Please model this.
Amino acid sequence: MVMVRRYLLAVGVVVGMLVAVVWAGVSAAGRGQVRWEYGIFRGEGVWTWYAPGVAVDNADAGDFASQMHAAYSQKGTELETNVLNSLAAQGWEPVAAPEKNKYVLRRPR
Model:
């Protein structure tokens, strides 16, 4: 009798785990995969931003700050930080910095 109870308990645990795994998979499938859009920001003298539907190309620092809705600074590194903070407020997050002063960012579509 004790063996039967242990067996039924073990079967119940396994079935419960399978149900949980299947339910989690169904829930994830309903949400779908996150789709991303990507942008490239270059700072410190180049001042460009490319993203879907947006291109700010080789602007001077003041115009670039204005177009990016970032606080202007004569210090290049400070302006870069201000631009990154402005982009973060719009939902962009950095995912790579392949070169000095070049950033790849993404946000959910």
Notes: The mean pLDDT is 81.
